Here is the input.
Amino acid sequence: MDQSNAARSSTSLNNFSYLTISKIHPLFWMAGLLITLWYLPAPEGLTLQAWHLFAIFLTTIISIILNVLPMGALAVLALAICGITGTLTIKQSLSAFSSNIVWLILLAFLLARGFIKTGLGARIAYYFVQHMGKSTVGLAYGIISTEFLLAPFTPSNTARGAGIVYPIVRALSEEYDSTPQKGTERKIGAYLMKLAYQTNIITSAMFLTASSGNPLIVSLASTFGVEISWTTWALAALVPGVISLASLPWVLRLLYPAEIQQTPKAPQFAKQKLSEMGALTKAEWIMLCTFGLLLTLWAVGPSFGIDPTVSAFVGLAILLSTNVLTWDDILKEQNAWHTFMWLTTLLMMSTYLSEFGMITWFGEHMRTWISGFHWIPALGLISLIYFYTHYAFASITAHISAMYSAFAVVAIATGAPPIIVILILAFLSSLCAGITHYGTGAGPVYFGTNYVKLKDWWRVGAILSIINLSIWMIAGAAWWKILGLW
Here is the structure.
């Protein structure tokens, strides 16, 4: 009995020790940081209210980067601190929960569940493989086509990449006996894994609803007087995005080639999978029609006064009323509600930092640093710094929250057209995640398969980053000139 009690005590002590080290200590460090910032005198030109909100905001961002607690939990802490300290009123703290952009991203998460639940997402992928997969490059374009088609409706690039595309890429690799366990990863699997991840990053940049950080950018842009619609985003990203996607299989073939270049078994494999799935089910037909309706409404609806968020509500209502999705499905979509919580909180703090003059103050103090620079080279330098600082981030959203507004205000201060600044930094916010294996949620999933060695992942990612930067900042700039954006 004594030994049992001793064992339990030892276990309890071990658990307490673990809790202390992994949870309590980081929270104490963050509390210390907040208190230190709080009692520092506000810089000249800033109100005490702006400085206190900045202290809460910065502490929250650092806590997100260090993964002190889940982002949703940190959002609740931030809201509580804003309220209990009187930094913001409760009405101000909860103001972002009525944002149509935040609701759009929540609804897109819920709509994406329909692709997974009905199997339509997998069917689309196998369809492209069947018709394009006779060669490794053709197979690559099949994967790209799947990502491109699903991206507007799946705001979680992790759900899109890890939940729909990854299982198919893994199955195709194993079909060709390409596995790390057998030392045959370079036959085709390594090429496909790297391609699928890079594709996921590019498509995330192409649509407002393709990544959960994009709506935050749209909201931040409005503080600079720039309004970005779903159509404006998609149209501006179309040409550089298509060029990046079209060149990716061939560039990877040079940088990281597969040993197998012909894949005659892939179409047959996909055909067999489609045969097992059978004909389109009623639920898939409804999902497909809803998919088409939403794409149409998002493209032309604003011209008729139909807000994209209203369109998303219509799509979700169709899926619920036809029982394609149930209310239990909605409640169980944890990632959607998790994102809704932290996105509203970060958006709220960013909005009031701008309203309280923090962003303007920062821009004015940075003018001296960039004085004398023409806006084109200045914007190029600012973009490069913003892009490669993502080596320090494991989250696109954390990167956006910490640095987007600051870099945007500096770039605009050089005389660069505000909409160009907003768009370039918006697209780079997703593209920069391709440089590491931890840049966004889908990265660890693909890297964790051990198909691609770390040095190869970073080497190829670094080279592709230069290529993507060139495409988006040169071809993109020319396309935006044609569109009349500058």
Observations:
- Residues 79 and 93 are 6 Å apart (CA to CA).
- Confidence is low (pLDDT under 50) at residues 6-22.
- Residues 98-278+313-325+357-482 form one domain.
- The chain has two domains: 2-90, 98-278+313-325+357-482.
